[in-house]
Structure formats: structure tokens, C-alpha cells
Design goal:
By secondary structure, the chain is mainly alpha-helical. The chain is about 70% helix and about 0% strand. Helix 2 runs parallel beside helix 4 (about 60-80), helix 4 packs antiparallel against helix 6 (about 120-130) and helix 5 packs across helix 8.
Amino acid sequence: MRQNEERQRRFAGLLTEHRRIVFKVARVYARGEEDRRDLEQDIVLQLWRAFPRYDDTRRFSTWMYRIALNVALSGVRRDAVRPASSQELDDQLPGGTPISEPDERVAQLYQAIGRFEPLDRALLLLYLDDRPHADMADVLGLTVSHVGTKIGRLKERLRREMTDAPVNHRRNDHVA
């Protein structure tokens, strides 16, 4: 029993330290607020299930990204974030810390990223989190050179989308 408590404590500490990864992935891959919360819960559940197999020689954040993105991409593939029969999880970490940290200042960025293909979204999330190219390649199963090439293209596309977004939004407001 003592070993299980220690494992729970260690997991909770690591999850608290890196919880923004869960939030970022869910924010980009979920279709709405309820789906976002469901996806966060699914990610945390899968992290907990996989934790016994976590290799301490690897960075926890890289391992966490890999699992979080796999859960999100699986949801995209099956076109449902969570089956109706899933068990509800508390939306707080141990100690009452919320999983999500909404930040409305980046809403436009997340909306723009949300229009990208699923793998490109994952790459942008890792890039925006200042992950080294080698980590990105490891998480996504790409070569380091492929990561560099894709990031250059994605940054340019994101720059265009972010520049065009306010103009398109204003045009739509005048039409209605």
C-alpha cells in the first residue's frame, strides 16, 4: 500500500508541474468547453495508466506530450473525445489545483492552430512550448530534419492566418 501512495504522490507532483501540457493539448484538439474538459480527463487518466511504465531516464514532459498527443489524435480519428460510458474524473488535481488554466489572451492563437491538420497542431504545440527539435521528432515519430522543415512552413502559415484573422472577422461583422 505504501508503494502505491508514493507512486500517487510522485505522479501528482509531476502532473502538477507539467499540467499546462494537458491544457494546451486539450485546448487545441477539443471542439468546445465540454469536450476540452473531457479530453483533459482522458489525458490524465491515460497518463496515470501509463505511469508505471514511465522510464525515469527520459524527460517527463516529453513522455507526457507523447501520451497527451496520442490521446488527442485518437479522439480525432474516432471523431469522439470520449465514449458515453467513460467514468467521470474530478477536474482538479490532488490538493484542489484545477487542471485547466484558461488564458483568453491566446484564444485567437489556439483558434488558428485548431484549423491545422492534427499532426501539424501537435508540432506547433511542441514548438510553442520551446521543445528541442529532437524531442519533437521523438514525440511525433519524425526525423529531426523533417521537424525543422515542417516548422518553417507552419510558422509562415500561422503568421499569415494570425495576420488575416482580424481582417476576415471584421468583414463578417459588417455582412451580418
